[in-house]
Amino acid sequence: MFLPAFVRDCRTATRLIERRADAALAPGERLRLWAHLHLCVYCRRYQVQSQLLSRLAPGLAAGPPPVSAELRARWKARIAAASGEVE
Amino acid sequence: MTASPPALLDPPQWPDRYGPELYHYAYRRVHNADAAAELVQEAFLSALAARASFRGEASERSWLFVILKRKLVDFYRQQARQPLAAAPEADPEEEAPGPLFGPDGHWLPAHAPQPWPAADAALEQQELQQILAACQRRLPPRQQLVFARRFVEEISTEEVCQELALSAANFWVLVHRAKLSLRRCLERHWLGTPPPTSAA
User: Fold this and answer.
1) Which of B28, B40, B56, B186 has fewest C-beta within 10 Å?
2) C-beta of residue A30 within 8 angstroms of C-beta of residue A23
3) Does residue B100 fall inside a structural domain?
4) Which of chain A's residues have a Cβ under 8 Å away from the Cβ of B182?
């Protein structure tokens, strides 16, 4: 095999893709990733799909379920019980 | 310094006065209703036990928040200690989220990303989001937490690392694994059945 290892190394490439989404890579990393993506259709897909995941994720920010009366009552009961122990 | 009278604190009123706010705060940080309820309860009980130390320098409310934040730190530490059956995460150098890649790091044929149809229609986006939500719930706890904080709540990497007491290396391992699993999960459940072979 005459090709450098990074040509096959999708594990590293996908890791670099994630890091690059956050901050600039070191020049060597950038070059290796560029070359890898040039040659690897799977990692090009991965990159697009990972970006889609990032864009979809904020939509998952559902508010918390409302605090039910039962939950409040449970908290109060625990506080009352513990207050008894403290005093 | 003399202690302010503990009368400043009104524990029986805490659940009504601060419960929802504390719960909301905790929920956004743990993304789990039961865990959030439990954390708020623990915060109340710790506050109660420590009420002699309340000096009235801060409001009752911010004092409770300080205690809740401590509980969250404990929670995160606990999560970090949890052995993970699904994927060994103890060693950040050990980069093997299941057998997605072969020994040379190349995608195994069964796991290589397939082309996805364009999902620009609003309906499809919504459907995708639902699948993504289900996939997220299936991640191991720490990956779920990191993904939720960084991508759902959009907190900066630095803040997430600090909050969850993670090294940058560990953070990236968790993000990488979470993304790999989510991508795979979405592909399986969105596209369904055997992946097409034609390029998009």
Assistant:
1) B56
2) no
3) no
4) 53
Residues 48-87, chain A: which have Cβ within 8 Å of B?
48-50, 52-54, 56-67, 71-72, 74-76, 78-80, 82-83, 86
Max Cα separation, chain A?
78
The overall pTM is greater than 0.80: no
Q: How many domains does chain B have?
A: 2
The sign of the dihedral angle between the CA atoms of B10, B16, B17, B22 is positive
Query: Over the stretch B34-81, which tens digit does the pLDDT of each residue have?
Result: 999 999 999 999 999 998 888 888 899 999 999 999 999 888 888 777
Tell if the CB–CB gap between A79 and B23 is shorter than 8 Å.
no
Residue B23, domain CATH? 1.10.1740
CA-based nearest residue in chain B for residue A74 = B41
* B77 and B121 share one domain: no
Q: Residue B166 domain-assigned?
A: yes
pLDDT for residue B94 = 32
B184 and B115 share one domain: yes
**pLDDT more than 90, % of chain B:** 50
Q: Looking at the domain assignment, is residue B127 inside a domain?
A: yes
Question: Residue B18 belongs to what domain range?
Answer: 6-81
Which CATH number fits the domain that encloses residue B142?
1.10.10.10
- Cβ neighbours of A25 (radius 10 Å): 16
Q: What is the ipTM of this complex?
A: 0.83
For residue B82, the model assigns a pLDDT of 63
